[in-house]
């Protein structure tokens, strides 16, 4: 078994597409800016984040039509230089809700929310630094 992706159900697909592609700088697979589906990949690694239109999934399953409330997901992205990355994404419109700060003595983190309220954690692993 292989994890293919984490998929987020979103109500405003174009706004979320812009956030993951233009603000966070992840590479879209096909360029489907209006949806109903798009996979995004970081520059390294094989894991991906995908967006799925919530209304489309509601039609398929006969549920999930309502917007999610509360923190129901946490997308985690590892970056090499947390301060530089945070500076870059805030200049493109991201709003940090926490950090950058130490989470442990081995990891620094920052948190933000995507346009649907999904939490995104940015991690800098201090153990990987020499």
TrEMBL record:
Residues 2-125 form the VOC domain. One of its GO terms (biological process) is L-methylmalonyl-CoA metabolic process. It holds the Pfam family Glyoxalase. One of its GO terms (molecular function) is methylmalonyl-CoA epimerase activity. It comes from the Bacteria. Transmembrane segments: none annotated. Keywords: Dioxygenase, Metal-binding, Oxidoreductase. InterPro entries: Glyas_Bleomycin-R_OHBP_Dase (IPR029068), Glyas_Fos-R_dOase_dom (IPR004360), MMCE/EMCE_epimerase (IPR051785), VOC_core (IPR037523). This is Extradiol dioxygenase.
């Amino acid at each position: 078994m292989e994890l293919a992706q984490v998929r987020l159900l979103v109500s405003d697909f174009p706004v979320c597409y812009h956030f993951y592609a233009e603000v966070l700088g992840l590479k879209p697979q096909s360029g489907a800016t209006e949806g109903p589906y798009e996979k995004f990949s970081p520059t390294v690694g094989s894991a991906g984040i995908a967006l799925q239109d919530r209304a489309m999934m509601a039609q398929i399953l006969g549920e999930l039509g309502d917007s999610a409330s509360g923190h129901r997901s946490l997308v985690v992205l590892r970056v090499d230089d947390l301060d530089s990355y945070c500076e870059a994404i805030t200049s493109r419109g991201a709003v940090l809700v926490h950090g950058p700060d130490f989470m442990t003595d081995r990891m620094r983190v920052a948190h933000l929310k995507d346009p649907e309220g999904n939490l995104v954690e940015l991690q800098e692993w201090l153990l990987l630094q020499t």
